[in-house]
Amino acid sequence: MAQPRISRIALSLLPPAAPGGAGRIMVAAEADGGPVGWAACGYHGDRWTDIERLARAVVGTVPTHTTRRHEALGLAGEPLRLQKGDLGGAGALDNAVLDLAARCAGVPLALWLGGTHNARVAVADRLRWADAPADLAGEARVRALVERVETRVARHGFATLTVACNDADPEQLVTLLTALRRAFGSRLALRLDMTALPAAAARPLVGPARDLGVSALIEPGIDVSVGPERTLVPIAVTACPEHGGILRGGVAQIMRILTNHNGGAVVALRLAALARVFQSEVLLGAGSGLAVEAALLGQLARATPADLQPLDLGPDPVVAATDGVTIVDGVLELPDGPGLGIAPDPALLARAERRAEIAA
Amino acid sequence: MSKLAITGVVLRRIRLPLDMVYVSSMYVMNDAFRTVVELETDAGLVGIGETLGTEECFGLAAALAKSWLGRDARDRLGLRRAFGRSVFDNRNGRNGWSAFAGLELAAWDVTGKAWGLGLAELMGGAVRRDIEVVCPLPAVIVPGVVGRAELVALFREPKNAAGVVEYALAQRQRHGFRCFKYKSAAASAVYDLAVMQGLRDALGPQAQLRFDPNAGYGPAEATALCQRLEPLALEFYEDPTDDIEGLANLRARVSRPVATNMCVIQLDHLPAAIRRGAVDVVLADLFMWGGVTNYRIMADVAESFGLEVAIHSLFETGIGTTANLHLAAALPRVQRANDSGHHVLAADVLADAMPIVDGRMRLPDKPGLGIALDRDKLARLTVKEVTVRA
Questions:
Q1: For residue A80, which residues of chain B lie inside 8 Å, CB to CB?
Q2: How far B302 CA sits from the closest chain A CA (Å)?
Q3: Is A245 at the interface with chain B, CB within 8 A?
Q4: When comparing pLDDT for A28 and A221, which is higher?
Q5: What local confidence, expressed as pLDDT, does residue A2 receive?
Q6: Which pLDDT score, from 0 to 100, does residue A162 have?
Q7: ipTM surpassing 0.85
Q8: CA B374, B380, B384, B390 torsion-angle sign
Q9: How far is the C-alpha of B278 from the C-alpha of B137, rounded, in Å?
Q10: Crossing angle of helices B219-229/B189-203, nearest 10°?
Q11: In 3D, which of A358, A263, A357, A355 has the Cα closest to residue A57?
Q12: Backbone phi, then psi, for A13, in 5-degree steps?
């Protein structure tokens, strides 16, 4: 059976979504004279050079040969043992090829990945302390943040909000959570993203989080995850080499999987299989804030045979859900065309600050 | 986007005659029943599947087929979710999953045909195309089906142990097998030891030998027997005793690997087996595990927790045998030979033969499973037929 081969991989470095933010990488995988598959990831670390290097092993191969490609990309083998660092470059490259494979078959990516386990994929909104005007402080700032959430919930129907802890002190966060609970009652599930929060700052938040009905603590750190506080609120831990022990020991009830960082959509499905068998929920997340990645996350979520937490689409889910991807009643609506069903806006690609091309 | 809508399902319960009398601790039989599935679609493509052929499984498959009419055959995950999102949803235990497996295999086959890809390619690509297979050895060579009481007397005769060894040598001569599975009747540990010692002496140290009494021995007797088999360096002990607890206790007392196709056969069995350290090898039967999707999930979990996966068989037609070849081709974790009883079938339903050359079978390279049915053969073997259409 003759299958098309990947003739070209193109990379574009896009400017940050907001001043001071990180750039984004758009990956395009093209078949001989045929369709183009797309993927996006954040620009940090060695991702650009990783993708350039790995792309040389991918061009000339057949998009459907996932297992052999994974050997070349370092994504083969035990899905947990792979998780030793950032697999974002390999993950983005693999995601672009998966989109290409689905487009070659003429079916949406979810169907290419096996079908639709989750017909309805909910999305969480995201809130940072910095999301209010810089000149506001104290109660005024909290009020502005709550109003922001009210506006977005009214417009997009979010039923879950992830509150990012990284730029607020614990006291401010408790005040904010209290105000949110007061404003929304039980209509809005609250998650607390504690990524990179020091243990000393994380631990005092757990009790108030429980009292305020927070539904998940995301990455509260090892001290909280294995300490006495762990029983208070469900914990989400990003897939890591130690996850076998986490699953066996029931330490966390949610496995967070980042579509690029953890190695792309196929590795994500393999990780989700572990989560499902050990009765852990899955929280899928993205980081670039681009529609291409939001579409990938939505397609992947449909095909994930596990109980899903509402998706984290990145810094601003409303911005990520553009160009054919929308959020209606808190649910991600996806186009039904082949692959991701969308392609990046040419005007966006024209703004690329750097480009590279690897041809067969 | 057009669907590959299911317009009809034809189920045939078939009786497969065997070239041997298969004697184990569970069966004395010279035939096997299977269910053959044909999934018709609005595109004119037909998917072929197979599963167990018990009356229960056949009936459940027919009932399930009705709920598949009009569904997209490519949406295997949607069909699986509709069947059983939770453990409780599937109300028929492993029979339910077996029924699902037959229909699901046909869905994979027709999807592959629609996309021009083999099943192994749909699963990520073949990493091998020549698949080593195992030769099953009956507990005793008998000319016809006999009752259990009569059978017991045969295990007192040392010459019968020698008969099993002679059969193994003849099969090796004919097909080039390097791997053999002895089906113990669990009637006599002394007899079993004699057979295994005879096999090792006759087949040499390179032959892979599996010992499978189908959990017929109690935990203490099984442990003592396996300990006495240790010097023979068997490939593994397959279900030497029953249940996760029994296997875990035995495994702690032997050095060779322990395998199961009876005690860990559903996804919800895996955590307990992993926590308890019950087995080294999940010898998984596609049709007990509930189909290709469940099989892949099982393989991912097994791999992540250091368990091996090997492929079990119980006298499938060429359809199921080919499906097992695709699994072995597509799952890098599968390193051991596939169980297969195909060469002892006296008849099959496929148009093409499936030769074993140098102990290996060849993966087809056409779309889907890559096989075609022989209508005349199928008709001759069919004992019951159900057609489900709108």
A1: 304
A2: 9
A3: no
A4: A28
A5: 66
A6: 98
A7: yes
A8: positive
A9: 25
A10: 30
A11: A358
A12: -95, 115
